[in-house]
Every structure is written in structure tokens, then in C-alpha cells.
Hints:
Oligomer: single chain
Distance between the termini: 46 Å
Radius of gyration: 25 Å
Largest sheet: 7 strands, mixed
Number of helices: 16
Strand content: 5-15%
Shape: globular
Helix content: 25-40%
Strand order of the largest sheet: 1-2-3-7-4-6-5
Structural class: alpha+beta
Order of helices and strands: HEEEEHHEEHHHHHEHEEHEEHHHHHHE
Amino acid sequence: VVRAFYLTPDAGEATAEQLRTAMLAPPPPAPVDRTSGPALNFADLPPIGAPSQPSLREPLGPGLFSTTERIEFPNGVRAMIRDSNNEPGRVTVQVRFGAGRTGFSTDEAVYADLGAQALVSSGVGALGPNELDRITAGRKMSFDFTIGEGSFTFTGDTRAEDLADQLYLFAAKLAMPRWDVAAVERAKASGLLGYDSLDGNPMGVLSRDLETLLRDGDPRFATATPEQLRGATASEFRRVWLRLLSQGEVEVSVFGDIDPEATVVALGRTFGALPRRSPLAPISDRPSPSFPARNSAPQVLLHDGDADQAAALVAWPTGGGSPGLPQSRKLDVLAQLISNRLLDGLREEAGSAYTPFASSNWPLDLDGGGYLLALVQLAPGDVDAVFVEVDTIVADLAQNGPSDDELARVIEPLRQYILRAQNSHAFWQGEMAGGLFDSYRLGHLPSLATDYVFTTREEIQALAQRYLLGHGGYRVAVMPRSSVAGAETP
């Protein structure tokens, strides 16, 4: 049995009979076998540049930093390496560079969404996607790319035997990026096909609209619309990303089961061989996204899914920047307290089994733009009750703070998590990311556990007064379109 499924953004593009005919037609032979051609080897690829020796190599510091080395190269690249046997055979590589979302101009935001899908799949140097598959076959290598608020990150899981070639792929993406029209067109098609499906449920709508709503409509954080996707071109994609890939300092971290000496040599042949990069403006000079004003009536978004599905969200502006790291950790505690109280309150007042979610986002690469939010998926008729419950929780926390018991219910799981997670090299790699160019991140690392474990009722009360009560909250309700007559999505 052969079944065909055809998904297209343009209704009427093909009939069922045309699809059946196409499926039954014998396929023409491929002119070129995808696996044909000479064997590919990293040793045959062009060098990144002239290898260099570190201009500095020393322990990162005493105590918990003593097992990590700090390495600097003459071209300005900095690296951290940490030999760890907690996971034998596993190595994690992370490369941070650039300005993230804030590096795009307001009319370039569509290329952020396209870059998330097409930048890596375009390949590097002479290696297109097919060649990348062939050259990495039988190896442990990966190439993940994320776009943060204030930085870009390459991440790869590998092993010591493949580490040098993993570093080559990442460095080559910066030194000799490949531009593939087909990859951009595939990303555009994927965005077009998926856009309408985001209307199908409340969480889809929030995944599409929330990031820009919480930044007061900043287009750099908006999901690309179909009109923007159709207007995007491969040539403009290349222009935008060629600039972004060349900007800002580079920090490489290699943590795991490594040979330190071989790792330093591999770094010198790859990232140490890069040309010196154009600088970025300091974080203090980059404009942070703003936050919308308090609204008494919620911003209403609409979805086309089931009529019994809705979502209610309240968000408050906080801050950003690594100097405030200790405070950001205590905001995590505050967020969990709100989540627990919401869970108890909704079950008591509404008799509902809803599962609320609250979290705090404190960007370290920006001096502001952070927020704390509380979100509940629920029935449309309970939306107003959530807003009332949130206001009650905020007022009580600001006036009285949490009880000792409920504070302990939040802190103890956090303490247990930190105890378990610190055995993982990936945990420390994540916590130390960006620290070679930002001393606050490393300076506040020794207090990681105590900032959580010794959070006091008075600190939580002060944070609730400052951030939650001080602003009042930005409210969003995602409702089924059928239940809101005449309403329009903003």
C-alpha cells in the first residue's frame, strides 16, 4: 500500500488525481548518485589560516576554576578547556560570538528565522549538505546553532578522536561560510507551511507572538510573516549573515573527556587561525528591548483551535546583565513560588486540574529586557479567574512575603538539582559561558548555590514589591476565535 500526503500553502495547487498520477509514474534515474565521488577527508580540506600558538595559557583560577584552563590567541579568540571524566568518551564544544537578535536591524528580522534553519544546512567552504553527511559518516559530530538575545552559539557533541574536525567545522563556518540558495528556499517553504498551523492552539499563538509582545513590538524578536518570507531573497540572506558571522569576539569552550595538549593544538589550527574580527559595541551601548506598559484589560490573541482551549498570561519587566546574576537567581525562586501558589489557588477556587507555569528570563548579554511571566492553559471561562488569582498572589507576596514552609518547598528541589547537576561538565560549561569576556559571570559563579539556598522571605518580598507590584503586569489572553465576536488578532 502506498499513501501520499501533500502539504502546500496554496490551495488548488494540485488535485488528488494529479498527486496519484505523480506517485504512480516511474521515477527517472538520478543523474548523480548522492554517495558517488571520491572519498572525503578533513585532511584534504583547505586550512582555516596559519596556525598559531596561544599568547596566554593558564589555570582559570583557584577553587572550582582550577580544573579549567584559560587560553588566548593573538587574534583575540579566547578559549576554555576542561578535562573531565564524568562522562567517558563525551566532549561538548560551544562557540559564542556576535550580537544575537540585537545584531539585526528592524527590517532584517526575517533573516533570523531563516538563519536558524538555513545557515548550518548551507554547509561550509566546499562542503554542501551532501558532502557534510559523507565526511561525518561514522563519526561522532554535530552542528547545532542557536540565536540568543545578545549572542549566537554553535554547539556540538563529539569525542576526543573527532574533536579537531569538529572544531574545524565551526571555525570554517566563520572563516569560509557557504551560501546555498536551495537551503534558503527550503527554509522559506518550511516557514510558509508552518505559519498557519501556529493558529491551531493557544501555545502555538504564544510561540509566534509572545517574544515580540513582551518587547513592546520590537520587530527583531518577531516571527517572520508569510509576506516577509516571500519577500526574502538568498542574496540578502548572504549579505546579512556575512556581516553577522564576522562580528564580535569569539569564545570557545571545550569540556569533557579530552587530551588538553591535543586540544590546544587543534584550537590553534582552527580558531587561532581566524583573522582578527571586527568589534561589536559594548553591551552597555546596545539598546535593550523595552517592555509594554501595564494593561488593565488583557491583550486578546485569537486561535482557530478547539473552543474549550485558552491561555492566560501575566508578565512583568525585570532586568538583565551579568552584574545582577545573584538577583536573577532569586527571581527564579520567586517565579517558582508564584507557580506553586497558582497551582494551589486554581485547584481551591476553581476546582480545576490546570498546571500553571512561571519562569524568569534575565538576559546576561543585555543590560535589560528581562521579564518574569506566569502562564496557565485553561478553559476560556476561567481566564478572568486567573488574572484575579495572580493579582492576589502578587499583592500578598509584596505585603507579607512567602511562608518559611513554602520557601523551603522551592529551595530544597533547587538545592538537590544543583548537587546532581554539578557532576556534569555540561552544567559548568553552561554556567561559565561568556565568562572569558565578562568577569561578572565567573565572579558570581562561586555563589551559585548560596544565592538560591539562602534566599530569604524578605528578599522575595522586596523583589515582589519592586518588579511585580511596581509595574502591575502585562496581561495576555489567548481565546478561541469562535468565542470572541468581532475580535481581531493584533
